[in-house]
Amino acid sequence: MFLFSSALLADDISLSYSIQPRWFDYNDESYINTTEDLIEKTNLVSTQILELVTGTENIALTATLKNRLQSDKKAESEVTVKELVYANTLGNWDYSVGRRISSWGVGSAFRPLDVVQQQDLQDTDQETITGVNQLALERFSGMSSLGFYLINPSEDNQQSGKKQLAIITRFSESKEKGDWQGLLRLSQLHKLQAGIGGLYVINDALELHGSVLYSARYQRMEHSLSGQNENLLATEYPWETVEYHDAKSWMLGGNLTWSERHNLIFEYWFDPLALDKSQWAEQLNLMQEQNLLLGSPAPQQAVQGNLAWSTEALANPHLVQDNLFLRWSYQGDEYLPQASILYSPADSSFMFSTSLGLDKYSMKFNIGLRLFSGSQDSVYGQMPVTSQLFLTAYGDF
User: Fold this and answer.
1) What is the CATH number of domain 13-395?
2) pLDDT tens for residues 376-392?
């Protein structure tokens, strides 16, 4: 099962199919590693995706049929319209309406300016993200553009995340040595967000990039029992929405190329949505104490339920606030090796990934290994998975 584009189809239609198996090895010493009865420790997961991309002069459609196979479980399938948008012109302006994929940020590991939708850039699964419903009015003049966007126009102000109603204004400009952009976003949740970012080409070997996003208000999920020792078991859902004000998420990085084929990406970023060092210490201590209650006189159903709730600490794509990312790659004629590390300066834990790509005979393969490591009281050292072996196979015809 591979990803391919059929030459027999029309020029404006492509059909693709991919297979992405993943093998997992679990950390028996993790505080987040709950019992098999609560969280199934699946050693093998395989995802197959059939993707259709088509359109006319004014309509673009991307849809997928996704099938997920898991050890000893029935296959799960779902159909998703990733993008369905109608676009046309009105005088000097372009307008579009529908579900549209929007990614504006610069960077390889974290993009603060992706305010319409955030993609988990660390995920080993390769899948087209699902767009967001929007109305867009844009004008392009030379190397600059101005756009106005109404995001989720049919939703109310009480929604959050992808379904939140928002208004965005964005300006971008390209110059000989680089690009830059600025945006303003208004929403009920964040009130005002303002961001600026860009990239600058120093020379043929070095490019620098960065961005910063200010949010007048933001929310973060925090555990109600974290930081205290009086009560270790919650009787109801313990995660609470806590409101903060005046936050800045930012990223600085660069791209270094040498010997024509070697490339090094380096990025450092701060994400206020993640738990900070002290909050993670409190959360890990709580989970450790809850694990000690297993087999004790405490109600075991309540203990196991609380352990399951505590695993939601991993729900944020960026687990820690401060992050250092390095990725080396080599552009060979057929073989494409690369290695990366995502490092947490707060506790010296890390996630290491390496892979080897093969591009030959109109087919592409990528096989890799991901490892999590750190001390017993670190975030990545407490990950329930110690290693992951992944494979992606696809091709173009």
Assistant:
1) 2.40.160
2) 899 999 998 999 999 99
